[in-house]
Amino acid sequence: MNFRKSIKKIAVAALMMTAASPVVAQDLIARQAPVDRKAKALDTLALHNLQMKESYDMPANELYQDWDNKYAHKASALPDSFKIDLRHYHMPTPSKVITSNFGPRWGRMHKGLDIKVYLGDTIRAAFGGKVRVVRFERNGYGNYVVIRHDNGLETIYGHLSKHLVKENMNVRAGDPIGLGGSTGRSTGTHLHFETRLCGVALNPALFFDFRAQDVTADSYMFRRSTVDRESAQATKARGKNDHGGYNPSDVNGGRDIAQNGSKKNNVAETSYKAPVRFHKVEAGETLYSIARKRGVTVEELCKANHIGKNMRVRTGQLLKY
Fold first, then answer.
1. Nearest C-alpha neighbor of 147 from the set 132, 136, 162
2. What sign does the CA torsion over 237, 238, 243, 245 have?
3. Do residues 146 and 165 lie in contact, with contact meaning Cβ atoms separated by under 8 Å?
4. Residue 249, phi then psi, degrees to nearest 5
5. Contact present, 210 and 126 (Cβ < 8 Å)
6. What share of the chain in percent tops pLDDT 70?
7. Per-residue pLDDT tens digits for 53-72
8. Residue 217 has pLDDT above 90, yes or no
């Protein structure tokens, strides 16, 4: 009898515990809800702080609202002022020879610097960032690369013979991004190098001193009110010298010197030489009109190209000057 009573008590207790378990579970869920809300709030705060830190570390986030691989450059509103960090850089090429300055040229605006390089020379990223555009443009840049940098600048590398990166790749300063060439609208092997802020071209000489193979300072404070005057000063101080030539040894170790590598102690090999340039003949041009346009005499033009004064040039022909 007592045994039966004990069994009944145990069964009733188990039944009561089973009935109460959903209530207990609901109580636990109810108590857990405020904890989850607090954790979620903390996660949101941590994420916000992380985003703020990334925005501080990468000023480019303040300037660009989108990521577009379609356009090499698309101008947007410039800030009144913006500090550009120039530390942690790498020169795009070891060449010290500037063949064309930033500014008006041949009736149009030349929006970068032309730097003398040889076919196949390695071209490197100027700063760390992300590759935005890798394209070919027949009547312009040729093979070119656009990189958006963490400091807010975008750099463009034009007339490459070959791309070494792909769109959306992350690169560090000094990483190879292409090889020197003369693709697109180009009359000789060189690197066309642009620096842009919000899609607006700025003089690379504001940031880079190619002859010294260095940046101009640890940072540059861009101000819309003074940038034009500072650009003119930068060209005067660090641009192409129109009154003299260049030393062949300034271009990638002096490959213009005799192929046997010897350097004789004579004036001919140690003196500066003027760079050879090319003119692409347009419809209706003559030797006389080309000579006036390029600032040389007809005799000099003929001598450089081994032609006579009465020769009729043809459209598309390349002439040395």
1. 132
2. positive
3. no
4. -70, -10
5. no
6. 71
7. 544 456 677 888 889 998 99
8. yes
CA distances from 242 to 101, 121, 204, 245, 296 (A): 10, 25, 18, 8, 14
C-alpha to C-alpha distance for 277 and 12, rounded to whole angstroms: 104
In 3-state terms, what secondary structure has residue 314? Answer: coil
Picking from 239-243, 251-255, 314-318, which range would have the lowest pLDDT averaged per residue?
251-255
CA 243 from chain centre, in angstroms, equals: 30
d(CA 79, CA 294): 38
| Total count of residues recorded for the chain | 321
Structure-block tokens of residue 114: 């032309």
Helix (H, G, I), strand (E, B) or coil at 106: coil
pLDDT at 261: 40
pLDDT of residue 162: 96
The three-point CA angle 208-212-217 to 5° equals 45
- Pick the closest to residue 156 from 120, 118, 201 (CA basis): 201
Grade residue 182 by pLDDT with cuts at 50, 70 and 90.
Answer: very high
pTM value is 0.63
- Nearest C-alpha neighbor of 113 from the set 238, 293, 272, 279: 238
Check residue 14 and give its pLDDT.
61
Token readout for 261 is 């590598």
Structure-token pair, residue 69: 């691989």
pLDDT at residue 271, rounded to an integer: 33
Q: Residue 84 corresponds to which amino acid?
A: I
CA distances from 44 to 37, 48, 51 (A): 11, 6, 10
In the Cβ-directed half-sphere of 211, how many Cα atoms lie within 13 Å?
14
